[in-house]
């Protein structure tokens, strides 16, 4: 689960970097716009991955 969350967060970070530097939303471009159902699902999964990853901050180092 940690790897899936990390992959989704990397996708989100790349997308936000493209938005910030070039004004280009890769997810929206690939999946039919920001309001397209598939885009919204991906945005939601990236958000959930970020929330899940908060747990990585509070875990013991031996468990990670």
What does this structure look like?
The chain is mainly alpha-helical and 64 residues long. The protein has helices at residues 2-22, 26-31, 37-58. Helix 1 crosses helix 3 (37-58).
Poorly predicted runs of 5 or more residues = none
Pairing-aware structural class of the strands and helices? mainly alpha
Rounded to an integer in angstroms, the radius of gyration calculated over CA atoms is: 14 Å
Secondary structure tally: strands: 0
* Content of β-strand: under 5%
Order of H and E elements: HHH
Quickly count the domains: 1
Beginning-to-end CA distance, first to last residue? 12 Å
Note the overall shape: elongated
Summed up, the helix count is 3
Major sheet description: none
Helix amount: over 70%
- Mean pLDDT value: 91
SSE layout and pairing:
Layout: H1 2-22, H2 26-31, H3 37-58
Helix pairs in contact: 1-3
Task: Give a concise summary.
With 64 residues, the protein is mainly α. It is built from 3 helices and no strands. The protein is 77% helix and 0% strand.
